[in-house]
Amino acid sequence: MAQELLARQREGSAKQRIASVCLLNGGLFPETHKPVLIQKLLLSPLGPLVSKLITKRKFADNLRRIFGPNTPPTPEVVDSLWQLLNHNNGLAVMHKLIDYMPQRQQHRERWVEAIIESNVPVKLINGSKDPISGQHMAQRYRQLISNASNANDVTELTQLGHYPQLEDAEAVTTAYLQFRDSLNQS
User: Does residue 170 sit in the same domain as residue 116?
Assistant: First the structure.
């Protein structure tokens, strides 16, 4: 979503002006996105059936696989995320929500260009141990984003996984506040 908003701002069709962007782990580049099995199954023709077969235990197992090895989800985190997933029967539409993956492929050029050509400061905070979009995605970011060679533009949290904001909220907050402080000094 942030990439689309940046693209709209570049072309002058944005309704709001974006002053800066801070990105967390995500499939910014389809070529580096490594979906886990459940994501692939949800995207397949079996998606509606798979949605119905997801249990809290299977959900927790999948979370453990994408969190950092030293920062597994607590039972409270699992409970909270499970509750959110089930709110308003959300689990039943998981196979529809996963459509963001083909959208990334479809809009790759537009969305990647939006970051590359951004006229606003962009920060990436990345959990390196994320098997979906971890260190390999941060490396691609540095390859494509010319100003990412600046240490302030990328923070790699080497022991965290796919949800760094849940795994170590303090580290993410610190990195974000340093980014904000750097903007105020400019």
Answer: yes
